[in-house]
């Protein structure tokens, strides 16, 4: 491997909409999903059914980040690349959820490389 594929093989992609938050990590050389997490998963829906929490809340974004971080740790991934130029529109639209998601991933020991 040469260039960015060798130095940054795992890329973090975020999808922050008005209703949901999801994130996935793609392994560039194989073009496959290494791990993903979303606020639409069954675990989150069951948790939220009994509580008054909103799926748009910042706490949910942090939980999605924690879940993704733990799934990456199980796979042995310790660092991921985040292209801030591509993700700038998502960060500008909802900065608090963006930061909470990144913080949740970092809490599990995953390093974010710009």
Automatic annotation (TrEMBL):
Protein family per UniProt: Belongs to the universal ribosomal protein uL18 family.
Single GO biological process annotation from the record: translation
UniProt entry keywords in alphabetical sequence: Ribonucleoprotein, Ribosomal protein
Name the record gives this protein: 50S ribosomal protein L18
InterPro entries referenced in this protein's UniProt entry, alphabetically: Ribosomal_uL18_bac/plant/anim
Superkingdom per UniProt: Eukaryota
Any one GO cellular component localisation term in the record: ribonucleoprotein complex
GO molecular function terms attached to this record: 5S rRNA binding; structural constituent of ribosome
């Amino acid at each position: 491997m040469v260039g960015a594929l060798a130095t940054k093989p795992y890329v973090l992609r975020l999808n922050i909409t008005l209703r949901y938050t999801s994130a996935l990590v793609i392994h560039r050389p194989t073009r496959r999903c290494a791990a993903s997490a979303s606020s639409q998963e069954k675990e989150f829906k069951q948790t939220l059914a009994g509580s008054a929490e909103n799926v748009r809340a910042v706490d949910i974004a942090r939980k999605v980040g924690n879940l993704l971080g733990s799934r990456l740790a199980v796979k042995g991934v310790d660092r991921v690349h985040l292209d801030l130029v591509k993700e700038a529109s998502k960060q500008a639209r909802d900065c608090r959820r963006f930061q909470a998601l990144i913080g949740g991933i970092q809490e599990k020991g995953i390093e974010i490389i710009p």
